[in-house]
C-alpha cells in the first residue's frame, strides 16, 4: 500500500511516498481504507522531530497524521459491534505508535477511536473534525465553566479556536475571541459575542471588555504569558502546546493533550453528531493529492490558512 512518511525527522522535504505492507486488523481493531487525511500543525511538529522522544522504540518510517476519514474494509476479532465493513468513518490516530499515523492508504486503529463519519459530508470535510474538535472539547471540559460564564479564545480563526467558540456557545457560555481585521466576520460567524484585535496586547483588550478578567481562556494561539493577564484570579488558562506556566495572579495553567481522549468513543461520537447538526463547522482550505504532502506542509508553515489542508488518498 502507499503511505507518506519519512525515515528521518526534518523539514517538509523529508516526506516521500513509501510502499509498505498492508496492515491487518488485530483484536479490537478495525482497518480503514483511508480516503482523506487532514494536515494539522501537530503533523508538522511530528515530522520535524518534536515528538522524537516518544518514538525511540518505533523504527522508521515515521508516518504523520492524526485525522483520517475513509471506509472500514476489515474488522478484527472482537471489534466494536457499532462498526461494520463498508461503513464510512472517521478516526483519531496517534502517529507516535509503531503503526504510524493517518498518512496511508490503509490504517489499523483501535475500534474505540473510530466513529461514523458525519452524515452529509464528503471524506475531505469529515477528516477535519476529530483532532481539533476533540482538543476544543477537552479544553472546555477542563475549564468546566457554568452556563453564563465568560470564556476567552485566542487563535479564534484557527481550527481549534473556531471549534472552541462553537462548542462554548453550545454550552451556554459567553465568548470573547481575538481576530485580525480580515477575520472578524469569520469569528463572529462562529458565534463569538465579542471580538477583540489579536496580538501581544490581547489580554489588555479582553480586560477592557471584562474588567475583572475571564474565568477561563483557551489559548489557541499559544500566547502563554501574554494571555495570562486576561484571566481572573483563580481562573484557568488551558494550554494546547504543553506549556505549564508559571502564571501569576492565582491563575492555573492546565495543559491538555488530545491523546487523553483518543479512546473516549462517547466524546468522539458526540462531536460527530454536533457536526451533523451544524453546531460544528467543517472547513476545508484545500485538497491536495497525497503525493503532494511536502507541499501541504510548506503551505501550512506559510500560514494564513482558514480551514484545513487535506491529503487525498482515494
Automatic annotation (TrEMBL):
Keyword Disulfide bond: no
Enoyl reductase (ER) domain mapped to chain residues: 10-311
InterPro entries: ADH-like_N, ER, GroES-like_sf, NAD(P)-bd_dom_sf
Residues annotated as signal peptide: none
UniProt entry keywords in alphabetical sequence: NADP, Oxidoreductase
Highest taxon of source: Bacteria
GO-annotated molecular function: oxidoreductase activity
Protein name: NADP-dependent oxidoreductase
